[in-house]
Write a structure and sequence with these properties.
With 198 residues, this protein is α+β, with helices and mostly antiparallel strands. It folds into 2 domains: 3-109, Methane Monooxygenase Hydroxylase, Chain G, domain 1, CATH 1.20.58; 136-197, Ribosomal Protein L9, domain 1, CATH 3.40.5.50. The protein is built from 6 helices and 6 strands. It has helices spanning 3-15, 26-46, 50-84, 94-107, 119-129, 180-188, and strands at 136-139, 145-152, 159-160, 166-167, 175-176, 192-197. The strands form 2 sheets. Strands 1, 2, 5 and 6 form a 4-stranded antiparallel beta sheet that branches. A two-stranded antiparallel ribbon has the order 3-4. α1 (3-15) runs parallel beside α3 (50-84), α2 runs antiparallel to α3 (50-84) and α3 runs parallel beside α4 (94-107). The protein starts with a helix and ends with a strand. The model is unreliable at 111-119 and 125-146 (pLDDT under 50). It comes from Thermococcus waiotapuensis.
């Protein structure tokens, strides 16, 4: 994964009305690219290589802009696919498949998961969704109540959880309580840090 690959991907998405096939590891590879560029910039800064740091930061900016545009296009196509009803979610990578099923359930006015997912997965997601807007809590080893929240490092729009409940918008620097499913995705994307509150 590199900037050239992202450019090619964007050009292909722009040139076709349907979703372009991507590798299952596409989003993971992008996260690795962003991490590598961050590390390169930090390393250059520590060595006093200002020009090299600036190059890494510019590459980082370009990569993020390209990815935002790719995601925007793919989201539009996903919504179109939901309404056309002529698309199989099996053709999508995992992250997009979950989103497709949420959108499909919403359009068909079904309770999320029922009718579009195996029962075992429905039960697991219902258990997780029961956390809702509440702080994820559990008993610590000392019997203390432990709460999990997230510090967000970027402005984020409203996000829908599995039960189509809205969370946000969120401003960079906010300490927020989110369902673990959303929080963990934000942590993986590098835009949030998990905080445990005793």
């Amino acid at each position: 994964m590199d900037i050239i690959k992202l450019r090619e991907m964007l050009e292909e998405e722009l040139s076709k009305p349907e979703l372009v096939g991507i590798d299952e590891s596409f989003y993971v590879d992008f996260d690795s690219l962003i991490k590598a560029l961050h590390l390169g910039a930090e390393s250059s800064r520590e060595r006093g290589e200002n020009l090299e740091e600036a190059i890494y930061l510019e590459q980082l900016k370009i990569a993020e802009e390209l990815m935002r545009e790719i995601i925007r296009l793919r989201l539009h196509k996903l919504v179109d696919a939901v309404f056309s009803g002529s698309f199989s979610p099996g053709e999508l990578v995992e992250e997009e498949r979950k989103l497709f099923l949420v959108l499909k359930a919403f359009v068909e006015r079904k309770e999320f998961g029922k009718g579009v997912q195996p029962q075992k997965q429905v039960e697991e997601e219902e258990k997780e969704a029961n956390l809702g807007l509440e702080v994820v809590s559990r008993k610590g080893s000392q019997g203390a109540r432990i709460r999990t929240a997230y510090i967000v490092s970027a402005d984020l729009p409203s996000i829908l959880d599995e039960n189509l409940r809205e969370h946000g918008p969120v401003t960079a620097g906010d300490l927020v309580v989110l369902p673990e499913s959303i929080g963990e995705v934000l942590v993986k994307r590098g835009v949030a840090k998990r905080v445990t509150i005793l």
